[in-house]
Structures are given as C-alpha cells and as structure tokens.
Amino acid sequence: MIHFDAVRSNKVKSYLLLTFFVLLIVFLGVLWGIIYGDPLSGLVLALISSLIYALISYYAGGSMILSMTGAVLADKKKYPHLVHSVEGLAIAAGIPTPKIYVIHDTALNAFATGRDPSHAAVTVTTGLLKTLNREELEGVIAHEVSHIKNLDIRMMMLAAVMVGAVTLLSD
To answer: pLDDT tens digit string along 37-76?
Structure first.
C-alpha cells in the first residue's frame, strides 16, 4: 500500500504544482497588464504562455534537463556494467528499462528524470562510475529506480523546470 500512496501523492503534487505555476504566471501577467494599462492583454498573454510552458515542461522537461547537464547516452560496449545494472534493477522493480545516460564529470552524482516510468532516464557521472564498486553503484541506481517507480521524478522534474521559468521571468 505504501507504494500506491506515494505514487498517488506524487501525481496530486505534480498537478498542483502545474496549476500553481499557471496561476502564478497569470497573476504576474495581470499585474504587468495593470502596470501598462491593459490587464486583459496581460491576462491573455500570461495564460497562453503559461499553458504552453507547462505543456512543454511536462512533455519535454526530462529532455531539457538532460540537455542542460550535457548527458550522453551510455554506450553498452563502453559501460556494460552500468547498462546491465540498470536493466536488472528495472526488471526487479517491475518498470520498463529507463534510458541510461552518462555525464563526463568527476563529481559523484546520479539522478533520474522523466514524467513516468515509460519516459524515464537514469544518469550517472563518470566520477561515480570510477569511484564506486559494483555493489555501491547498484545501490545508487536502485535508489534512482525507486524514484522512477514512485513517480518522484515527475515532481522533481516539474519543480526544476518551473523554477527555471520563474527565474527567467524575474530577470
């Protein structure tokens, strides 16, 4: 039951976050319209742009995050241990195998992103691959796979993309 509660909670939080984002942008648009003497134009512009950005965030947010981090698809010949570990843990978790990416960086980091298990990705840095042994790496990947299974990835992805949008607006 705990897994289903986490999934349900993350779905609700994701939709609430998207709704809050749209309402915030609409509010700022109306405020902008009042300042420039045309609140209706501000409302319409903000509503259209926030809905478009929310849809882009939901459907392409994972790709945006992977692109921003410089992640590249993991080559099975170059990283067989990584690919086999992700495949095995995905099977054990009962989810489709996520896409596997590598970031060429010495930092020790890994993350999962996407909107659902069918559109998910697991990313690790080369620093993590060089530092951890097989068992430790599988523990990190299992943690990321649990984020995918519980739909934590949707909430985290939307939050990251929305924060980016609000930051751009504030500039």
So the answer is: 888 988 888 888 888 887 888 888 889 889 999 999 999 9
Is the entire prediction scored with pTM above 0.85?
no
Asked if residues 102 and 80 have their Cβ atoms less than 8 Å apart, the reply is no
CA–CA dist 17, 88 (Å, integer): 33
Say which residues have a Cβ less than 8 Å from residue 150's Cβ, sequence separation at least 6. Answer: 3, 6, 7, 10
Does residue 144 carry a catalytic annotation? Answer: yes
The sign of the CA dihedral 51, 162, 110, 1 is: negative
Cβ proximity of 152 and 3 under 8 Å: no
- The partner residues of 99 in beta bridges, in order of sequence, read 121
Place of tokens 């999962």: 112
Question: Six-digit token pair at 74?
Answer: 């993991």
pLDDT of residue 16: 85
